Amino acid sequence: MERTKTVVKKGVVYGSMSFYQGKKADEHNSHKWACYVRGSDDEDISTYVKKVVFQLHPSFSNPTRSIEKPPFEIHETGWGEFEIVIQLHFYDPREKRLDIPHLLQLYPKQPGSSQSTKKPVVSEHYDEIIFTDPYPEFYQRLTAGEGTPPDTQLLESSFHQELKLHYSNHSDSTMLKMLEDAYSFIKQEANEMRDKLRKADLEIQNSRSELREEEKKAREG
Ligand code: V91
Fold first, then answer.
1. For a Cys staple, 138 with which of 103, 113, 115, 134, CB 3.0–4.6 Å?
2. Atom of ligand 1 nearest to the CA of 59
3. Ligand 1: does its nearest atom lie under 6 Å from the Cβ of 39?
4. What letter does residue 170 receive in the DSSP assignment?
């Protein structure tokens, strides 16, 4: 299938967090640390990220750490600061993997500030991944979950509260039942609409690709 003529932008947050071990520290394990990558705004990146590989310093045992599902993070102990390469692998193998170098920070930057076992040293970065003209199947993964409906639990409960306010007094349980049935019917309809909308969106992407092809052919005569 043809590529879509679109760009999709995904925000990611990555970095490290480290705790000084204090009394528990020894020469080679003065710090506990974690390295991680996640979506910004609590977005689930596992819809389009197949796995994350963390490349550690070769002196660590099994320095290639492959994480196949969220949370995409690793935990270790050590003594020194070095560069970790965070590799993001995508569901579409035609998309090149993204290598993000991250400098593991264990020690506070402010000179003279003493290490606390309570305050973690955090080094965190925000970045945006731009996918240019992704293939339709991958485009769907990238855009899945967007335009999600508002919290239905919340809606449902507030709807229920509202109904009770108006109908509990005259205990019209029949009317209450009717309205609740109507509500679940509409909810069902909305879900089907959303599904149709998603499919139609993909159709548009495909039609655009075809149109571009036709225009190209016409130009080339
Ligand atoms: C740095 C390996 C715990 C050099 C100085 C490190 C490995 C390599 C590092 C580490 C560079 C693992 C070990 C013995 C036992 C400044 N660990 N390189 N366990 N940056 O922490 O830190 S640190 S080695």
1. 134
2. 2
3. no
4. T
